[in-house]
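Sample entry as discussed:
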Amino acid sequence: MATALKNLSEYNAATIPSGKGRCFVIVVAEWNKQVTNAMAEGAIQTLKENGVDESDIMLYHVPGTFELTYAAARFSHGDVPFNGSWKADAVICIGCVIQGETRHFDFICDGVANGLSALNAEGRIPVIFGVLTTDNLQQALDRSGGRLGNKGVEAAVTALKMVQFVPKM
């Protein structure tokens, strides 16, 4: 498996556009918080390293991964103010679903993937899918700051690249 061979979160900083003056919302699922909090920290650090001022990053928590879609929709549609204004440039959604003994895993993963995809299709602002769907806790830990990198970092890099499609207000 290719993912076992390297840290997937390494990137060339020269290829990342500056996020200076852009506003980012990070919505984090509380479920599996050991994993999701580490991913959120990676995303925040990456945004800051690429020119985003800390005051232009809003961190918002929801109970679980399924609820990411609702929160992302509210920010995408401008229903929730961002630091007193009504405009965010991108929403980064961070969650982690670990396979269990029932089909619940399948329903949650399908629901959040389809929900966030639908928001992206609307095209208001980029909604970034930073959701781990793993077989076990170790796989999640490996991808949230462990030996395979941090998917939060990757989500932030994606957001920085995608806001280039959004006119600056």
